[in-house]
Amino acid sequence: MTMFLAVPPAAEPITLAEAKAYLKIDSNDEDLLVQSLVTAARVHLEALTGRAFVTQTWRIIRDVWPANGILALPIAPIASISAVRVTTSSGVVSVPLAGLRLDGRGAPPRLSWAAAPPSPTVGMAGIEIECVAGYGAPADVPAPLTQAIRLLAAHWFENRGVISVGHEVAVMPRSVEALVAPYIVRRIA
């Protein structure tokens, strides 16, 4: 399964002003750095948790439908499915969403249909699912996740080089790990 971001979030969970206040920065000299650290922290934590924080659109590409008819989606929470397209011998077919059943708040979210959708006839990447993911607006992001973004951005701001702890390189403070731990979507292979 492959996925890529089609439409990024319109805003970050933490504004530049909030990040600067947290970092106790009064000047505008490092605004670009601070904003990029907030974005990088969000993207890093979204990848770690398997969640989209602020509303964004993703495209998920699959080769075939699962045999059991229930498709586990690789990102949570899912607000809606915008489109499902299947490549068949007659071209790209849009699958009607009417029979769609979505458990968008599940961990992981799941998708199934009342009647089986058409099967792709190409060997690879024959199914494309476009979904809207995220908790909603920046204010809807759970507080532990926004705090984790603040802490990680601050950590990266204060420690701009690689930090060596013994023989290990410290990438993320344990407080950030603790804040996001309940939000990590576990995958069973």
Could you describe the 3D structure shown?
The protein is α+β, with helices and mostly antiparallel strands and 189 residues long. 26% of the residues lie in helices and 27% in strands. It is built from four helices and ten strands, in the order βααβββββββαββα. The strands form three sheets. The chain has a five-stranded antiparallel β-sheet, with no helix packed on it. It has a three-stranded antiparallel β-sheet with strand order 3-7-6, with no helix packed on it. Helix 2 crosses helix 3 (143-158) and helix 3 (143-158) runs antiparallel to helix 4 (174-180). The longest helix has 19 residues, at 31-49. The protein is elongated and about 60 Å long. The model has no long low-confidence stretch (mean pLDDT 92).
* Percent range for β-strand residues: 25-35%
Q: Going across the major beta sheet, what is the strand order?
A: 1-2-8-4-5
Gyration radius (Cα, Å) is: 19 Å
What ranges have pLDDT less than 50 throughout 5 or more consecutive residues? none
Number of strands: 10
Mean pLDDT: 92
Order of helices and strands: EHHEEEEEEEHEEH
N- and C-termini, Cα separation? 13 Å
Counting helices, strands and paired strands, the structural category is alpha+beta
Q: Helical percent range? A: 25-40%
Per DSSP, the total helix count is 4
Globular, elongated, flat, extended or rod-shaped: what is the shape? elongated
Q: Biggest sheet, open or closed, and with what strands and sense? A: 5 strands, antiparallel
